């Protein structure tokens, strides 16, 4: 029988002392900015910060009466579902293929990791140039196929453009975790299934995918947060929220209003965005995690 080993500290203050540095970092870089955002969302401040007026929930009421802000909810929902879903599925597919490569495996894996080193703004500009209606090589191929591509005027094309850029930017991160998860699966299980006559698809569906569920759940949480918070630079570089405001996701509108020095509205939007992410994370841990096989 395995004996449980527990560490006993001689001083009751030593554990708290060891936790103190991390607690200070969390307090300074998370709780303090969150508290400041909550306070500022209940105030109206001028552009120079010299005049502060307590307005209570007026900033939030103004948001709910703003049709552009309400429209950004739907835009963000579509964008985040596509980015998280496509990013996870494509990276899993690439990881499965990379796990089976024998010759040139190192080169193949290295090429798939490279996009993660590209800054989000650079990724947005790169895809913007490739799909530029006038000089883009990708739009030229599409025109040759009879598809009239113009992300500057067509809302659907603009959404597809930022989704592709965001997925491409994040796919390397997902790929690394899936590749590590596949490497941790005992090869004896795969070989035993192959001897029993299970074809590759059945081996993947019944053995590899269930064992990858912890990795998939982790990446689902990370990709949702990424789609909500870390894609501003991609949207700003590729479409600037256009055409009109059809690709203005929540984080883009937040930063746009902050740059316009509407501090109260931007603070209220940051609080709403924070609450949305907290709710989504809690829902994922409460319902999705039940299907994870640890």
From TrEMBL:
<comment type="subunit">
    <text>The complex is composed of two ATP-binding proteins (UgpC), two transmembrane proteins (UgpA and UgpE) and a solute-binding protein (UgpB).</text>
</comment>
<keyword id="KW-0472">Membrane</keyword>
<dbReference type="InterPro" id="IPR000515">
    <property type="entry name" value="MetI-like"/>
</dbReference>
<feature type="transmembrane region" description="Helical">
    <location>
        <begin position="204"/>
        <end position="229"/>
    </location>
</feature>
<feature type="transmembrane region" description="Helical">
    <location>
        <begin position="267"/>
        <end position="288"/>
    </location>
</feature>
<keyword id="KW-1003">Cell membrane</keyword>
<dbReference type="Pfam" id="PF00528">
    <property type="entry name" value="BPD_transp_1"/>
</dbReference>
<keyword id="KW-1133">Transmembrane helix</keyword>
<feature type="transmembrane region" description="Helical">
    <location>
        <begin position="12"/>
        <end position="32"/>
    </location>
</feature>
<protein>
    <recommendedName>
        <fullName>sn-glycerol-3-phosphate transport system permease protein UgpA</fullName>
    </recommendedName>
</protein>
<feature type="transmembrane region" description="Helical">
    <location>
        <begin position="110"/>
        <end position="138"/>
    </location>
</feature>
<dbReference type="InterPro" id="IPR035906">
    <property type="entry name" value="MetI-like_sf"/>
</dbReference>
<comment type="similarity">
    <text>Belongs to the binding-protein-dependent transport system permease family.</text>
</comment>
<feature type="domain" description="ABC transmembrane type-1">
    <location>
        <begin position="73"/>
        <end position="284"/>
    </location>
</feature>
<keyword id="KW-0813">Transport</keyword>
<keyword id="KW-0997">Cell inner membrane</keyword>
<dbReference type="InterPro" id="IPR050809">
    <property type="entry name" value="UgpAE/MalFG_permease"/>
</dbReference>
<feature type="transmembrane region" description="Helical">
    <location>
        <begin position="77"/>
        <end position="98"/>
    </location>
</feature>
<keyword id="KW-0812">Transmembrane</keyword>
